[in-house]
Amino acid sequence: MLSKLFPHPLLTLVLTAVWVMLVNVLTLNAVVFGLILGTIVPLVTAAYWPDRPKLRNPLGIIGYILIVLWDICVANVQVALIILFKRNADLQSAFITVPLELRRPEAITLLAGTITMTPGTVSADLAEDGNSLLVHCLHAPDPAGTVHDIKSRYERRLKEIFE
Amino acid sequence: MILTYALVFAAVCFGLGLLMNLWFLVRADSTGDKILALDTMVVNIIALIVIYGMAFGTGVFFEAAMLFAMMGFISTVAYCRYILRGNIIE
Amino acid sequence: MILEYVIAALLVIAGFFGLVGSFGLLKLPDQMTRLHAPTKATTLGVGGVLIASMLYFFGVEDALSFHELMITLFLFLAAPITAFFIARVQLRNHVAERDLPKPERAGTRWAGHLGQDRSSD
Question: Is A79 on the interface with C (CB under 8 A)?
């Protein structure tokens, strides 16, 4: 009964928090209306989202976010230096294939998003069977090393969180 | 005082960026580049709106910035999807 | 007073990165490399402006505002998705399949180039 009324409890909490932040005042009024929205929206959308993503290690997410934020700052400086001081002729951009060990769609989405936000790499495509990711590097003198970095830095942590 | 200078500097930077995007939008010859230029313009405009709000000390522009962010995201995705699939809602 | 310097520094850094991002769009040579400039430099640019604005309204005007946080969150969620879509468009229009490395498992292909074939068959 309770799981029928709240198909995604976490989504209910997130929607309530987002509503309170959008209204921008912390009153009982806002919280109650946020809870109402947080109940109705998951109920209506539950049919499109049948299985709940299960987290094995939710606290790992905080560490992951901190690492990614730090990498975003570093990536910005690196890309800015490349743009400002490297001649286009010296640029060694390349496509690389990253073999995936992750199987869950949520985890692969997160990994692709992380790759796009971090040092000089943009995820461009996924293989039809979901086993490898096509990544474009802005400046990669050592493509194998970049693949190893991505796998050891992000994929390993995501694997610990999700699987 | 220093805050005013910083605000002016940031506004000039993002304004110049906006002009560069406009120049790139006119010059680009492929559709993907034009979408990229429009997407970057949206991001720069959000920054300009927030800077304007700070300069005048009011928070009323944040709703505008948020709407701009959402509209920019949805229009970019819809545009790309139209080129990839030939229609937006199947 | 210190807060003012922090806000000013954030604004200057953000403005610099925003400008570099837009400049990269003009400078970088081909369709795929151009994607890198805006997705990174502008995100930190706008992120810096939004954090500065949050500190400003908290410290100078004495009003806690969550709207900046929402905008930042939204932009950070949206930027990879738009970048992925634009990358798909560029790949499909400008990069031939034979120029790409092969996927890990033999015999499979990249999803973006699948539909192209079917329409031409």
Answer: yes
Residue B46 belongs to a domain: yes
Give the model's pLDDT for residue A30.
87
CB contact under 8 A, C17 and A83: no
CATH number, domain containing residue B7: 1.10.287
> Is there a contact between B24 and C94 if contact means CB atoms under 8 Å apart?
no
- Amino acid, res. A61: I
Whole-number Å distance between alpha carbons of A71 and C57: 28
Q: End-to-end alpha-carbon separation of chain C, Å?
A: 68
Give the residue with greater pLDDT, C91 vs B22.
B22
Q: For residue C66, what is the nearest residue in chain A, using CA coordinates?
A: A21
Distance, in Å, from the CA atom of A48 to the CA atom of B72, rounded to the nearest integer, reads: 25
Could you list the residue range(s) of the whole structural domain that residue B27 is in? 2-85
Q: What is the pLDDT of residue C116?
A: 58
The identity of residue C98, as a single letter, is R
DSSP state of A24: T
Q: Does a structural domain hold residue B90?
A: no
Residue with token string 């570093």:
A74
Q: Which residues of chain B make contact with C41, given a CB cutoff of 8 A?
A: none
- Do the chains contact at A124 and C84, CB–CB below 8 Å? yes
CB contact under 8 A, C36 and A79: yes
Res. C120: pLDDT tops 50: no
Task: Give domain limits for chain C.
Answer: 2-78
Distance from CA of B90 to the nearest CA of C (A): 15
- In chain B, how many domains are there? 1
Residues of chain A with pLDDT under 70: 1-4, 50, 52-54, 119
Question: Which of C30, C66, C81 is opposite residue A24, by nearest beta carbon?
Answer: C66
For domain A60-162, the CATH architecture is: 2-Layer Sandwich (3.30)
Report ipTM (2 d.p.).
0.84
